[in-house]
Amino acid sequence: xxxxxxxxxxxxxxxxxxxxxxxxxxxxxxxxxxxxxxxxxxxxxxxxxxxxxxxxxxxxxxxxxxxxxxxxxxxxxxxxxxxxxxxxxxxxxxxxxxxxxxxxxxxxxxxxxxxxxxxxxxxxxxxxxxxxxxxxxxxxxxxxxxxxxxxxxxxxxxxxxxxxxxxxxxxxxxxxxxxxxxxxxxxxxxxxxxxxxxxxxxxxxxxxxxxxxxxxxxxxxxxxxxxxxxxxxxxxxxxxxxxxxxxxxxxxxxxxxxxxxxxxxxxxxxxxxxxxxxxxxxxxxxxxxxxxxxxxxxxxxxxxxxxxxxxxxxxxxxxxxxxxxxxxxxxxxxxxxxxxxxxxxxxxxxxxxxxxxxxxxxxxxxxxxxxxxxxxxxxxxxxxxxxxxxxxxxxxxxxxxxxxxxxxxxxxxxxxxxxxxxxxxxxxxx
Length: 430
Known about the structure:
CATH superfamily of the largest domain: Amidase signature (AS) domain
Helix content: 40-55%
Structural class: alpha/beta
Strand content: 5-15%
Largest sheet: 10 strands, mixed
Distance between the termini: 19 Å
Number of domains: 3
Oligomer: single chain
Order of helices and strands: HHHEHEHEHEEHEHEHHHHEHEEH
Number of strands: 10
Number of helices: 14
Strand order of the largest sheet: 2-1-3-5-4-9-10-8-6-7
Radius of gyration: 20 Å
């Protein structure tokens, strides 16, 4: 149930007139009609295609000359349903009335629209980007979860329903579903893509990220979305990869570790140096600080909504909010400070070991069976906590044919280097 739909190909076909925007939308519509009833990646919308085709007609009228067309001219995108989008309601995977969740359109969405993209629709999210899952299924095997909380976005890109979709990450909500669905997921340095216009979870660690089918598409999108993007000369030398050996890696399953070792062998065979670096021996404490920070900040962000509509929240989300209300201010402050301390630890260790990028499993193992859970984000937590730019790259498959992959993290602010290096890494892994 997966189709090839790379972002770069779409840009070329649309911008240079090989395909009209309306014809491209019609291609996706046929695929949507075939696959969407089985994977349920998009929030249902009456009149979706009439709206999108009207936007396409308007765009084509504005830019008849290919030389004048913006970089993402006519590209249909999915938008996780915690982003506000002009003309579309925000449900956030919840039972709260949409009129209380309204807000100004997300700055990241506006940047994509300014670059010529069309909003195909809202994609399914877990409730308020936490753990209560929606109906979305994994396109590789509908008996398995696509991951979360950006469930619909990852599944839609994997199925070829759109070449780009927004996600967010507060623990592992971009990198993990990218791994489960076999696509590229990118989480920038904390704050590099504006978070305004997105319903908050934990303001200290919320990241806007996205999904594409390949690294070339990820780099094209990042250049449109990231603040102060720099076009660097391509790096010919391969990066030295650091493996965070110890308690952190022990959190992966046996199958996840076996897959990771296979990926490391592929990279060594392709000429990459791989170095073991003992670090994160205190991963349990880091996990606890991050989880308490999330709970406390979720309770703060939802205080007014929860007071008015607490009965409409799922039991899972209510439990975390109630926990967050009990966390003392000192613990909240400690969690916020911990982010900066961990970032410094990572970068000091990289300098000492001569490492350019960290590499680790994207998830503990392949996508679990069923859709009642979205899987464990524990492998993603330290990279999110520290705010380091991170990319998920598809690799081999499990014994059951499900995707397995790796995640690579660069020093804070080195997003351009990470994405440039990702091309060679992705080539070696596949």
